[in-house]
Structures are given as C-alpha cells and as structure tokens.
Design brief:
This is DUF979 domain-containing protein. By secondary structure, the protein is an all-alpha fold. It is about 75% helix and about 0% strand.
C-alpha cells in the first residue's frame, strides 16, 4: 500500500535536489532554505512518533527550524536565478511548438485524482492501493506522478530536466511555497489553545448575543477577518465555529449545522480574495505571471469579495434558520 509518508519522502528528495543545485551555483541562502524544509517531509512521521512518546527535543528542533526559515525569508531575497537569453528563446520556441498539448499533463491531475479516489473506495482490487487515512492526499500525489510522466512524454524531456525546472519554479516562488502550510498549522494551534472559547467570551461582551442577526454578522465578519490574518479559511473555520458558530448560532439560535458550515466556509474565502497571506492564490500567480504590481490580483478581486460576502450573509440568514 502506498502511504502518504512515501510521497512526503519524494517531496523531501526533490527539495534536497533543489538545495544541492543551488549550492553548486553558489546560492547558499536558497540552498539553506530548501535544506531546512527537507526535515518535516523526510522525518515528519519520526518526529511525530517521538513527540507522542514524550520526547520533546525533536519537536523543539522543528520549531527552531521554522524560526530559521522565517529569518531566511525575511533577510534574504529568495528568487530564481535569471535565465540566459538563449535559454529563454529555447523555452519560448518549445512552447510554441507544443501549443495546447502543454495543458494535457495539467488536466491529468484532477482527472486521475478523482479516478483514484473513487476507485480506492469502491472498485474491488483497487482497495488498499492508497492510504485510507489520507486517501485524498495520496490520490493527488499519485496523480501528480502520473502527470509528471505525461509531461515527460509530451515534451520528450528527461527526468533531470524536470527536476531542474521544478527547482527553478521553487526558487521563483520562494517563501510563498511554505506560507500555506505554516498558516494551516497556525489554525490548528489556535484551536488547540482555546482561542475559540476566548472569542466566544469577547463576542458575548461586545454584541447582543440574543440577537440572531448580530451573531450571524459576527460569525461572517470573523470568518473573513481571521482568513485575512491567517490566509486560510480552513484555519479560520475551527476557531470561528468554536467561538461563535456552535455556541451562539447553532445551540442558542437553532441554526442548521450543515448549511452554516458550508456557507460559512465559503464566506471565509471572501477573505482569501483580500489577503496576501493567501500566497498560493494571490502572490504566486503574480510571481508566475511576472506582474509589475505584486498585489494586482488582490485589487482585481476586492469588489467580487465584497459582493460575495453580502450575498453569503443573506444566504445564511435565509437558509440556516428555516
């Protein structure tokens, strides 16, 4: 059976290769950044097992590594090495020759992920192929490997070139690659440390909790605000649901949990449209497209976010309390 841990090892090996490539070119800061990131992927399960066994040192070392990543990202400009003019011409000529066939490997990822997920759950013979505890992640990882094979077939390139260009893309994205993982972890930390209960106590002092509308506005606004801060609606959701959604809207005012959770999550994504902290949505595209305005994506999305927020609040008021 292919476990999620096996795919993490592959990611760690790729990061290590990228670090080695940077080190050979004298880009020591980039090499150090990617080397530090190898540890959670290559040794994450071992560190987690040691933590469960009561050994605090590995987890503390991981925390030191996270701080070191932040220092490197803050003090060193993480960027890809510029291509030579010949390399740029070669890549443009190859893209023109391949045309729309370049989209085929990208489309393989969602199609294969869906097929693998469905097959691993309901098709006899495929059950047990992927890690049932992380089925979606395992399906996505295996689909990405299939897409890599498809890309090599379409472009007639070698695996070495794929690793080199993948590392170049990592260098171009820099710290933005790490931010979503950090923010998702931050949401778990907030939930585990009782931030939701603290928010419930603060909300109870600020708004009239007997008013359903006031609680609903606080929930929607909190989802947007926390998503803007943490860059991830998944990180904001457990905090706001524990602080406002469950005790006030569901238990006190009788809101339907399923519809409140679904529309509340969508409301959080209004904040995703407004924040640079959602780097994978708002900063990475600007880097890849080489936009002059780093926040151009956010500026274009702001009006949509406001309209969608108003619509979601009205939808929750109509659906969740029927």
């Amino acid at each position: 059976m292919l476990k999620a841990e096996h795919f993490y090892w592959l990611v760690g090996a790729f990061l290590l290769a990228t670090a080695w490539h940077n080190l050979r070119r004298g880009r020591n800061a980039m090499a150090a950044f990617w080397t530090l990131l190898v540890a959670p992927f290559a040794f994450g399960q071992a560190i987690l097992d040691a933590h469960k066994a009561g050994q605090a040192l590995p987890a503390q070392l991981m925390g030191v590594g996270v701080i070191a990543l932040g220092v490197l990202a803050a003090r060193v400009r993480l960027r890809a090495a510029p291509d030579s003019p010949d390399e740029q011409l070669r890549r443009k000529a190859s893209a023109s020759q391949l045309g729309n066939r370049l989209f085929f490997p990208a489309l393989v990822i969602p199609v294969m992920t869906l097929l693998l997920f469905v097959g691993a759950r309901w098709v006899p013979g495929m059950q047990g192929l992927l890690d049932a505890k992380a089925l979606t992640l395992s399906a996505l990882a295996l689909a990405s490997l299939v897409a890599l094979s498809a890309a090599l077939w379409v472009t007639r390139a070698g695996a070495g070139l794929a690793a080199q260009q993948g590392g170049r893309l990592l260098d171009a994205l820099g710290w933005a690659v790490v931010l979503p993982m950090m923010l998702a972890t931050l949401g778990g930390v907030f939930a585990a440390t009782g931030i939701g209960e603290l928010i419930a106590a603060l909300v109870g002092k600020v708004i009239p909790v007997q008013s359903r509308s006031a609680c609903l506005l606080a929930f929607a606004g909190g989802m947007v605000l926390f998503t803007v801060i943490m860059g991830n609606a998944f990180a904001a959701f457990p905090v706001m649901m524990a602080g406002i959604g469950l005790p006030l809207l569901i238990q006190r005012h009788g809101a339907d949990p399923a519809s409140l959770g679904a529309i509340g999550m969508l409301t959080g994504y209004c904040g995703t449209l407004l924040t640079p902290m959602a780097a994978n949505f708002n900063i990475v595209p600007a880097i890849l497209l080489e936009l002059k305005d780093q926040y151009g994506v956010i500026r274009m999305q702001a009006a949509t976010a406001v309209v969608l927020l108003v619509f979601n609040i009205g939808l929750m008021a109509w659906v969740c309390f029927r």
